[in-house]
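Reading a protein record of the kind used here takes only a little practice. To see the layout at work, look at the sequence and tokens printed below.
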Amino acid sequence: MADGSTKLLSSVRGKVVIFAMMQTGCPHCQHFAQQLDMYQKEYGPKGVQVLGVVFDTGAKAGLPHFTEQFARGFPVGYSDETTVMNWLKQPAEQGYFVPIVAFINRRGVVESQHLGDDVLFQDPDTNIRHKLDILLKQPGAAGKPKQ
């Protein structure tokens, strides 16, 4: 996080997580962060947590401005490209488009991940809402369906 602390994905187990990986200077990422604010406000009370990480070269220095301008409604930290690509199991040398988003179910399992050129981003609002609605109907961390 901006203050140097670490936020683990396991700290939000039991919630459906939208985990967004973005770059501070990317206009698509900036717009996506604003959309994510909307999902956090709307779906947060239903059990969704949006988390973000910026991972470009100037991520640590650019994080305060990025969160102030674009990502006010959910926690955003910073990392480096190697760590993010390793988490995604995506070789950085193959190239990638941002933003990148992963959907994590209530049990902490990554259901899907989508690079910025994925079909999810052709109609992101419809596709993300559809994905969240499906994940919210799945059993919770204890194996019981959430109502």
